[in-house]
Amino acid sequence: MQRNDEHDLIGRAQQRDAEAFTELYRRHVDRIFRYVLLRVGDAPLAEDLTSEVFIRALESLGAYQDRGAPFAAWLYRIAKSRVIDHWRRAGRQQVPFEAVEVETSVEMPGGDVIAYRVLARALRRLTDEQQEVIILKYVEGHSLAEIAEITGRTEGAVKAMQHRALASLARLMEP
Known about the structure:
Elements: H1 2-14, H2 18-40, H3 43-60, H4 71-90, H5 113-123, H6 128-139, H7 144-151, H8 155-172
Helix pairs in contact: 1-2, 2-3, 2-4, 2-6, 3-4, 4-7, 6-8, 7-8
């Protein structure tokens, strides 16, 4: 039922129904923001990039075609592109891990801010692809099939990347 409801919202938004796009935004903005925040480590920057994601989505909505993948997969691909563009413009300068301050007013799953900060620092030491898989699986709660759809990889490739990323995270988070 929710898939049909979202499909209807997308159709209405493509017909320039502002309320429909607002509802799509409301449903997805928190997840997209968390995804971007974990990739860039700076809340104000993540807010700006999240805004860019939804501006791009609005501009491109007329060309969006439902091919059976969740609408969120399309938004995550836009978010990934915005993050990549940001790092290209910034020259891939990394903020020193100890300097990264995550906005604590942002509601994170589980609510454990200290654990979140430790995880966020370790995540930024993974490859971009590993970061993406871990964030989508364990922060956003997507299935392997959904992650494969979002990333354009096979489920087997996602599972292998997830395994390597978890092994790397375990090493990075050891005391």
